[in-house]
Design a protein that fits this description.
Elements (H helix, E strand, L loop, with lengths): L4 H11 L20 H8 L6 E5 L8 H14 L3 E5 L7 H8 L4 H5 L3 E5 L4 H5 L4 E5 L4 H10 L2 E4 L6 H11 L4 E2 L2 E3 L2 E2 L1 H6 L3
Parallel strand pairs: 1-2, 1-4, 2-3, 4-5, 5-6
Antiparallel strand pairs: 7-8
Length: about 200
């Protein structure tokens, strides 16, 4: 994956320094088996059926964007695992409750799971039932998804993630970029579930 020259030229010109490209560095597979509860749950679905949505440990979806993502995942009628993380010191249970729509858990029971906190991301991505990966467009996350053979949905959140999403979606055509709708967030529901 070479960074196209216009990006290199822009970055070099912006900082007034030469840019030397190195990478990508493909992560070594994580050691250890996938936790039994995730393995059992994922194994109950066909190959490439599950949508995995995770935004890393340093990117936190605002409540409105998380709710829209969850409603979009629900509308797909596909099995999904959505992982939401919250800043250190936050009341994770209260934060989660602010993002999960009323009645959501009952409507998706058996096919949708919302988890708060850390998961074995690489092992989950490599599970045969996982076919789509919605992530924050962080370079490492995108590479992990590619190595696992997942379809990529890329809603960038901050800094280099906008460049990454544009590069992977527009230039390399290996993912779908989610454009910001406005300052209130992304059009995640319509993208994940189709036109609304």
């Amino acid at each position: 994956l070479g960074l196209p020259l216009p990006y290199v030229d822009y970055i070099s010109g912006h900082f007034g320094k030469p840019v030397l490209l190195a990478g990508p560095i493909v992560p070594e597979p994580s050691e250890g088996e996938l936790e039994q509860r995730w393995s059992d749950w994922l194994s109950s679905f066909p190959e490439n059926a599950v949508v995995f949505a995770s935004f890393g440990s340093e990117t936190f979806l605002p409540a409105s964007a998380a709710t829209e993502l969850l409603l979009g995942l629900e509308a797909t009628n596909r099995p999904f695992l959505a992982v939401l993380d919250f800043p250190q010191g936050a009341d994770a249970e209260a934060e989660l409750n602010a993002r999960v729509p009323p009645g959501f858990e009952e409507r998706v029971r058996g096919r949708g799971f919302v988890h708060k906190g850390w998961v074995q991301q690489q092992q989950i991505l490599r599970h045969p039932s996982v076919g789509c990966y919605v992530n924050h467009s962080g370079f490492s996350s995108v590479v992990e998804g590619l190595v696992a053979g997942c379809q990529l949905v890329l809603p960038p959140m901050k800094t280099d993630q906008y460049i990454n999403a544009a590069l992977f979606a527009r230039e390399l055509r290996i993912g779908v970029e989610v454009a910001r709708r406005s300052e209130d967030g992304w059009k995640l529901k319509g993208l994940v579930s189709g036109p609304s």
